[in-house]
Amino acid sequence: MRGKLMSNGELIGLTELLKDACEKRYAMGAFNFCNAETAQAVVEAASALRSPVIMMIGPMEIPLLGVRAAVDVAKSAAREAGVPVCLHLDHAYEYELVAECVEAGFPSVMIDASRMTFEDNIRLTTRVVEIARAKGVDVEAELGAVGRVDDSVVEGGNATSLTSPAEAAEFCERTGVDALAVAIGNAHGVYTRRPELDFDRLQAIRDATSAPLVLHGGSGTPLEQLRRAIEIGVSKVNVASELSRAYLTAVEKAVANGNGKTWYAQALIEAKAAFAAVVADWMNKLGSAGRFLGS
Ligand SMILES: [Zn+2]
After folding, report:
1. Does 73 map to a domain?
2. Is residue 3 part of a domain?
3. 271 CA distance to ligand 1 centroid (A)?
4. Which of 96, 153, 244, 282 lies deepest, with the highest CB count within 10 Å?
């Protein structure tokens, strides 16, 4: 059904969500969670704003929760959501983690072989697409390396790490991925100076391939640059660092205000609310708020 999102309380993959976002020129926020309450915070913000949502967990968070518990927590949050919820594996660098997550019930995964050579990236991504397809799981891959803001090689855009439009076309054609993360001057972490996204490059990538495009390192990106990226064709924006910062700041504040008597659950209740507020802010900024009109 074209452009009609559905919600039946089950976890879904990326494809339907990104298709709707592409058609209607908004972007899906994708938010990292690490435990039950951050998962609830993501989904509760989505419910309140009638926004479809992508919740993600990756190698930085999985050691806390575990793969099976991540699926259980996401399923339980989605059941209450009343909006479409995607569970996505963020930045798996190894085949084994992807295989474990596909087996455990993730409907969507990312394989990040962007630090490898072009041919090795294609080889590993293709292997992942094969096991994913067998289970109806969607796959995001990355071409050109999105580094960290404290990685001086990447910040501001080093030409050797940015995505080549010609390679993007060949990569998507040969691997058949469902979404492609691009490096256009974006970086992970909290920006230490204003990022300058390379919109000519983004447009050339958009012209070269029809795969949905993903912008990693959303945290701290100026609003007008986000809007322009969405206008050109970015339909998924990853947000993690702002969430981490909001959560920790709320815990620190609760501890400081309690003069040594803060009850731990109270600190985490405040942290959960701060986390949800950041998610809601991003849903408004990216235009996904109010997009789910169904039931
Ligand atoms: Zn990322």
Report:
1. yes
2. no
3. 23
4. 282
Answer whether residue 79 is part of any domain: yes
SS3 of residue 98 by DSSP: helix
What one-character-per-residue DSSP string does 80-98 give?
TTSS-EEEEEEEE-SHHHH
| 67 C-alpha to ligand 1 centroid (Å) | 19
Distance CA 212, CA 263 (A): 45
The residue count of the chain comes to 295
User: Cα of 162 to ligand 1 centre, how many Å?
Assistant: 14
Would you state the pLDDT for residue 233?
Answer: 96
Q: Which of 20, 90, 138, 178 is catalytic?
A: 90
- Core vs surface per residue 118-146: b (16+ CB within 10 A) or e: eeebbebbbbbbebbeeeebbbbbbbbbb
Q: In angstroms, what is the span from residue 188 Cα to ligand 1's centroid? A: 6
Whichever domain contains 269, its CATH number is 3.20.20.70
pLDDT band, residue 295 (cuts 50/70/90): low
Residue 158 binned pLDDT confidence (cut-offs 50, 70, 90): very low
- Compute the radius of gyration of the chain from its Cα atoms: 18
236 CA from centroid of ligand 1 (Å): 11
Domains held by the chain: number: 1
Separation between Cα atoms, residue 273 and residue 264, nearest integer Å: 15
Please state, in angstroms and as integers, the Cα–Cα distance from residue 61 to each residue in 31, 35, 36, 144, 168, following that order. Answer: 12, 8, 12, 24, 29
Query: 195-232 pLDDT, tens per residue?
Result: 889 999 999 999 999 999 999 999 999 999 999 999 99
Contact 289, 24 (CB under 8 A): no
Q: 185 in a domain, yes or no? A: yes
